[in-house]
Specification:
single chain; two-stranded antiparallel sheet; 11 strands
Length: 273
Amino acid sequence: MNGAISPCCLTIAGSDSGGNAGVQADLRAFHAYGLHGCTVFAALTAQNPHGVSAIHAVPADFVAAQLDAVLGVYDIRGMKTGMLSDPAAIEVIADRLAAHPEIAKVIDPVMIATSGARLVTDETMAAIEKTLLPLATIMTPNLPEAEVLCGFASDPSASRAADSSRARELASRLHEKFGCAVLVKGGHGTGATAVDVLFDGKSCEEFSMPWIENPVSTHGTGCSLAAALAAEFALGRGASAAVRGAKAYVHDAIAGSYLVGKDCGVLGFAPRR
């Protein structure tokens, strides 16, 4: 028996009954990095790549029980949050995570769709801002989310030609507001490449990847990116290297996506270690 302790990762998110996104996508990413994955389910969903038909929120006390079962027991070095909808559960999550500064925390503030549609209530958004984001090692908003978190009204019809310069401004503002590294995702942009912008408090860096034409699936890419970031941090990498590695993981997963049903695709498995 090997007595060495291997680092683990934790996902706090909702399920995806189709296995494309949410906790299932996160576990796939952790496995690709050779890491054991622990889970805390914040919601159960009935969904497939065509949409979500039902959501069952997990009570805050059961979210707390799941957290208590894994934190301090498994050697969790990195974690990520996905879509959270219950303010009471968010407060429980923040309370437990605050006691573990050794864990790198990737907070994906799933609030606004790239279409501009709001996905959560004002109360939920306020809870995420007040309790979770101040704990983050890095936050990963898309451009509409970054705009709203900075207090601007997101305009889904606005031109995305100046995405990069706008993302730089927003990343700087969000770092000043929450004190963490900020990765503003550019997967919704209109340029020749997908550009994400990272601001770590000292410097701003752009990460560019070419678009993959006509991919079989892109469902779960946001979840996968945050999970890959958590894995990169768990392996001891800094923010810049972590973002570069996580983007490469997602790019390869999209490139390797494949059909698992009629008009139903899934991201491919892209081993990293």
